[in-house]
Every structure is written in structure tokens, then in C-alpha cells.
Amino acid sequence: MPTTERPAVPHAGYLDRLMRRQSFQALWPLFAHATKPAKEMTESFSALVHLRPHFPSVQPFRVVHVGDGAHARTGALFALKTRAQNVSIDPELNLSLVSNWQQTYGVERFTFHRSRIEDAYDVLDSLPPMPQVVSFVHAHVDVDAVLARLDWHAAFTLACCVPGRQLTRSHLIADDGEDFGVLSDERRYQVLVNARASLREAP
Ligand SMILES: C[S@@+](CC[C@H](N)C(=O)[O-])C[C@H]1O[C@@H](n2cnc3c(N)ncnc32)[C@H](O)[C@@H]1O
Prior knowledge:
This protein is of the alpha/beta class.
């Protein structure tokens, strides 16, 4: 059921959907490190639910997960549940833990960088060109400043403690509101689309 048809009270719909799938077994080791796994899982799943309709129809495409935390959980979830190439970026990323997890579960289309986004633009620029989508799941960054520097087609942002920077002041908003599937009080989101993006197939 689309989130918009749900009553405006917190619900476990995302958690139920995640837990019914085989991929839950692989996701669990990463989310189990969280103090509040249900909160983290539903935040990441909200990004997937809201971005999926905006995925480019061409393949390949990339999702850049900005501020993805020590365990790169949104990138991991997208790697398991989509065909996207995923890149997670966070200065606190636990490289050995996420590498071990990736090897254990043989997860493909997933890379991660222990870096501030501001220091990762050269790495991102050097990747093969393809349409890009961006996730900011409670990322402590200025969303508009990051999007100004990236080539992007659509973006999802979920705000927490600094909504003035985590929500856009300038981009086209395709969808916004409160997502009551997110089991956290901080559930205000926006889906942004870049009117200037072109969706040419990668060469
Ligand atoms: C509330 S946490 C988000 C956690 C993440 N969604 C998770 O599931 O663990 C905010 C994150 O933003 C990251 N962050 C802060 N400044 C950043 C920057 N300049 N570039 C990228 N990430 C940054 C922090 O390291 C932190 O992991």
C-alpha cells in the first residue's frame, strides 16, 4: 500500500516488508549494530520506497548515499534490493566491518568511502559516467550544497536535527511530507528531481 494511503500514525509496514524477504538475513548483521535497528531499517527503506519510482529507466545507473553512517546501511540495502551501482560516503565509515560484511554475503555493485562528501567529489567524478540518484538519510550535510556539486537525476532527503540544511531551499520537490513508516520522530522527507538532468544511456 502506498505510504500516502496509510493513516498518519507510525506503522510497521516497512519493517514487515523487509522481514518477509530472504535479504533480511544478509541485512541484519549491519543493522544489528544500531542502537535502534527498527529506526535505521525503516529510514533506509523509506529512501528505497521513495526513490524507486524515480530510478532511471536506463542501465546502468548509480545511487550515491551521502552520510551513510559507520555501517553504510542504506547503500547495503539498495545493493541487495536494486540493480543500481551503489556508493556510500561517510567520514565515520567502518571500512573493515563493511568489507567483511560484503565478502561474507558476496554483495555486488556496492563500494564505500570513508570520507566527507566534500573530499569525495574527485572520486565520484572519476567513476564511469551514468545517471545518478542521491540519498541523504539523516545525513548531516547541506543537501543543496552537495547537489550543486553532483550530477544527479533524483534525490531523497530525510531530515533530522538540521532541517534547514537537510531540506532543499532551491530544488524542485516531487514529493514531500512525513513518512509514518519511518519509526523515528524525525520523518520529514523530500523527493527532489533535477529538471536539468539528462538520461542519456552511458556510452
Ligand atoms: C545521523 S548520522 C546518519 C546515519 C546513517 N543514516 C546510519 O544509518 O547510520 C549523520 C551522518 O552524517 C555524516 N556526515 C557528517 N558530515 C558529513 C560530510 N561532510 N560528508 C558526509 N557525511 C557526513 C556523519 O558522519 C554521520 O554518519
